[in-house]
């Protein structure tokens, strides 16, 4: 604690001397003003300098907790990927990571299918869907008045193959864009996407 105070006073003294030297160099006439500036620096200096250690400590803890949070998030992602049967360096595919239209291919069974992830035109857009029941791929057609909106739709969107409700009318048109995609044949999450065109 004593060394802490001595460092503050020493720093304040250096600042005060610098002010006196500056005033002398500029040939100011009022010595009273110079002495006043020196005394203010001597009193206020320690409080100003006292903030610096807290800033340094705050940045240190912020970085430390940021790294811990990042490691925890990475651990959770790897755990989730492992639950999908993916390796530590593999990532699942989802519509938010894909654009346009292309071919999706399974790395396990070789299944291939042309799908639409997301395409838009002047008056409409198509949004890729996958049925949570039979894993069939489809796309939802939205008119321009519903384009990029998060409100209610006119009707539920159902799977054209098995009739399962994929998105209820109360839900966003972007519902499911971050959900993992699975192979319709073997249900593997090890899928690859080859883009054909993007709009």
Q: How would you characterize the overall build of this protein?
A:
- The strands form two sheets. The protein has a five-stranded antiparallel β-sheet with strand order 4-3-2-1-7, with no helix packed on it.
- The protein is built from two helices and seven strands, in the order ααβββββββ.
- By secondary structure, the chain is an alpha+beta fold.
- β1 (100-106) and β2 form a beta hairpin.
- The chain is elongated, with a radius of gyration of 32 Å.
- Keywords: Membrane, Transmembrane, Transmembrane helix.
- The chain crosses the membrane at residues 6-22, 38-61.
Question: Taking Cα atoms only, what radius of gyration do you get, to the nearest Å?
Answer: 32 Å
Strands ordered across the widest β-sheet = 4-3-2-1-7
Number of distinct helices: 2
Largest sheet: 5 strands, antiparallel
Query: What overall form do the CA principal axes indicate?
Result: elongated
Q: For the residues shown, what is the average pLDDT? A: 78
Strand content: 15-25%
Helix content, binned percent: 25-40%
Instruction: Return the string of H and E elements.
Output: HHEEEEEEE
Keywords: Membrane, Transmembrane, Transmembrane helix
Features:
199 residues; 2 domains; alpha+beta; two-stranded antiparallel ribbon; single chain; 21% strand; 7 strands; five-stranded antiparallel β-sheet
Strand and helix layout:
Elements (H helix, E strand, L loop, with lengths): L1 H24 L5 H53 L16 E7 L5 E9 L3 E7 L6 E7 L13 E2 L6 E3 L23 E7 L2
Helix pairs in contact: 1-2
Keywords: Membrane, Transmembrane, Transmembrane helix
